[in-house]
Amino acid sequence: MTSFNDFNFHQAIEESIDAMGFTKPTPIQVQTIPLILENKDLIACAQTGTGKTAAFLLPVLQRIMENNDFDGTKLLVIVPTRELAMQIDQQLQGFTYFVPVSTVAVFGGGAGDVWDQQKSAISAGVNIIIATPGRLISLINLDYLRAETLQTLVLDEADRMLDMGFYDDIVKIISKLPKKRQTLMFSATMPPKIRKLAKKILTKPEEVNISLAKPAEGVLQGAYLVHDEQKPQLLMDLLRDKPELKSILVFSATKLNVKSLYKQLKQSGFSCNAIHSDLEQHERVTVLNDFKNRKLQILVATDIVSRGIDIESIDLVINYDVPADAEDYVHRVGRTARAELTGVALTFINSRDVRNFKDIEALIGSEVHKLPLPPQLGEGPEYTVSKSWNSDKSQWKGKQKGKSGHKEKKIKKNQS
Predict the structure, then answer these.
(1) Residue 394 contacts by C-beta under 8 Å, 6 or more apart in sequence?
(2) pLDDT per residue over 124-175, tens digit each?
(3) Looking at the structure, do residues 199 and 241 belong to the same domain, yes or no?
(4) Residue ranges making up the domain that contains 229
(5) How far apart are CA 40 and CA 44, in angstroms?
């Protein structure tokens, strides 16, 4: 298929697609849309930025228009974070510009009047619901969800939801839904726990795998071997005098680091802001919109936005800290080189993070080029794993007694 016209969507949907500037379907869309239109259950493995949101929204809209059935809730999309819920809702607003369906995004953190609006919309039988598990459970407990008319359930970024501990919530939500329904599961990775959930809730599913856990080809990846005390200066050197870079994401492991980096960058005169879990919902929305609209050059963030931000043309992603999970690296660097564009992703590796980064290289199937530090910073650590580590990282050979042994065991825990 070379264009969206090949799917023979309803005219109103085609007009919305044209208005959004979509022309050529992505591989995940080509492979999944026909299956979804055939009412098949589906488990699809595709990374962020491959177009999976449109892959499940468009065929569901087609079914609603085809049947001229606007009575009650037809689609429920469950997502791990409010950022992703907002992202999908924004894309849905575009696809439904000429399509008369009602939609609502349901997530926590809003004011009381927002909560009241969400309850009213769901109890009235809004056609499409995008929700985080926690807030949806609250609505179910209050008996607001009317799911009798539900046709399709989508679990988006299912691996992330399970990582965040939502398994029991998902099972409870599904127990309240009609047994006769279409279920679609989208996940960036396919660990055993996802297979277990799929077996529990899907019926004879079709499987589609697209670019499993690989950064986009347009991402130029590089890494610096640095000691922790060298990181702040290296970051400043990389960002200084770079007006051609309009959009830069800096990821750090903790909100304390994010706040500290933001303060340093702000004091140095950079156009920047930060996003982390301590911000109120309206503050996070404002920061993301400012970054999306290029009012900010730099956004410093925790992984809260690594899977929940849909912004094209991010020029540079910097991993100030190596993510603990290899899959998170893919999602972080996936913020750049979206929509077949190009971008750069740089990672700072200290001596404790060498093993984690080697795991990342094993996952993506290639070695990331190690770049020399600027001369004024001196030498960084070597790219070798401590000899205290066995080849089997579950086996610790360090001292088991005394102060030194306790310290070494703590390092192991932090790297596992």
Answers:
(1) 416
(2) 889 999 999 999 999 999 989 889 999 999 999 898 898 888 999 999 999 9
(3) no
(4) 219-377
(5) 12
